[in-house]
Write a structure and sequence with these properties.
With 102 residues, this protein is mostly beta strands. It is 0% helix and 44% strand.
Length: 102
């Protein structure tokens, strides 16, 4: 299954599987030129409507539950893969703005 990731401006605009908003230390992303992006919130690509929140490795303090981000706002790539251990248990990758189940 493939789902296109679509960036929105605020969390209350997350409506469709794969919709995402970038976050900062201060909350939701508004203008990437002004603040450092520290994470992502997205709707599960499986369609269960659950929101996920992931932190990027540039966040301080860093820990092992963080992801590398390619820095692209519209076609993000995250590494390593994403695995949900409760709820729907979706597992997959986000590469070049496409969520792919594995």
């Amino acid at each position: 299954m493939e789902v296109r990731a679509a960036r929105v401006d605020k969390c209350d605009m997350l409506e469709h599987p794969g919709d995402f908003v970038l976050t900062t230390h201060r909350g939701q992303y508004i203008d990437i030129g002004l603040v450092e992006v520290t994470g992502i919130i997205f709707l599960c690509p499986c369609g269960c409507k659950e929101q996920w929140s992931l932190k990027f490795k540039n966040t301080v303090p860093a820990d092992s539950r963080m992801w590398e981000w390619n820095g692209c706002q519209d076609k993000p790539t995250l590494s390593p893969s994403i695995s949900k251990i409760i709820g729907c248990k979706w597992r997959g990758n986000l590469v070049d703005g496409i969520f792919r189940s594995i």
